[in-house]
Amino acid sequence: MADQKVAFITGVTGQDGAYLSEFLLKKGYKVHGLKRRSSLFNTDRIDHLYQDPHVDNQNFILHYGDMTDSTNLTRLIQKIQPDEIYNLAAMSHVRVSFEMPEYVADVDGIGTLRILEAVRLLGLEKKTRIYQASTSELYGKIQEVPQKESTPFYPRSPYGVAKIYAYWITVNYREAYNMFACNGILFNHESPIRGETFVTRKTTRAISRIALGLQDKFYLGNLDAKRDWGHAKDYVRMMWMILQADEPEDWVIATGKSTTVRDFVRMAFAEVGVSIVFEGDGINEKAFVESCSNEKYQIPLGQEVLSIDERYYRPTEVDLLIGDATKAKEKLGWECQYELSDLVKDMMQSDLKLMLKGQYLEEGGYRTMNYYE
Ligand code: NAP
Ligand code: G4F
Questions:
Q1: Which of 32, 195, 212, 275 is deepest in the core (most CB within 10 A)?
Q2: Distance CA 166, CA 186 (A)
């Protein structure tokens, strides 16, 4: 295909990288992805897209690399000559960023500079459009409700601070070198392939196991935090739309609705017919089974299914996020196709299926129990 578009995705093995790859392949793109060398397979989310490297005309091609290695990134961009770069690679866990702030600054912050600088050094400023995965974590200690493109930033974690560097260096390269470089300021987005340590997936996995009698209870941190949760499928479509716009700009992508962690837990239990009641305050809060209407999932009434563990609190928290995506809706025609209730259903059905398949049936162990952040 003479005019086949070529995309390069960093973070291709992550939640968004997987959905975006699927989306772009369906649109007829040739997709190159950056993956890290790992001692175990790390391609679970994209294995269904894998193409045998021994056949001709592959459209999905993986390359080893790392956001900390500028020579590697520059060489790959030179070889691939991408029309579009989607910079999704990041150490993306906010709680973990407090444990490894320097690494996060390097990967999430300077990593973005390495991509921009490679494009500039290679003289690809006019050819290559760049999407930077910015985040609602930039708003942190919020200065305005709801948050939109003009809302001042106040990051509350090493992750947020690294991402604020990435945000501004993207704006600076756009202004200094006329590059088509854009920030998508995306609010939380989830899916059945969301990383298992984020609160939504941690919850749907644990509740699936509780419903199947594999585990009695699970532990969370701050139940009062409110997030604007959308479905990742809606959000990767928008990443592409941002790079098809007439002008390079920055965009907020959000549902405009905010829900507490506590209510997310309630909704996920409701998917297996279980109603729960919360008792106590702060670190003494617990949830118990109040009623159970689904014969398939019989959990004893009164069972304690959730407790608080202080280790999951953050040194500084982002209490409330709620986005205003009016600009994306009006200028790009973006709309959410999924409601939060659809998302919870999708995640619960998928996790119940996974647990039933037996992948996580063993009791105890690193992966099944409550070690997550
Ligand atoms: P994710 O599932 O955690 O995926 C992150 C990806 O980055 C993975 O492919 C990971 O590789 C890769 N990566 C991490 N460190 C790397 C390094 N040093 N070199 C190369 N690759 C590296 O994240 P996501 O949810 O898909 O999010 C995608 C991007 O959007 C991230 O930048 C995130 O910060 C940002 N974001 C996410 C949300 C959200 O709610 N999901 C909201 C706003 C912004 P491995 O698979 O090998 O770990
Ligand atoms: O699911 P979370 O870990 O996501 P968080 O911190 O909002 O960050 C995610 O969204 C950002 C966009 O706003 C992305 F930039 C970032 O990369 C990531 O994808 O936590 C959500 C809320 C927090 O307030 C947290 O304190 O849930 C609260 N929470 C309560 N208990 C917990 C837990 N979070 C986790 N991960 N684990 C818990 O046990």
A1: 32
A2: 14
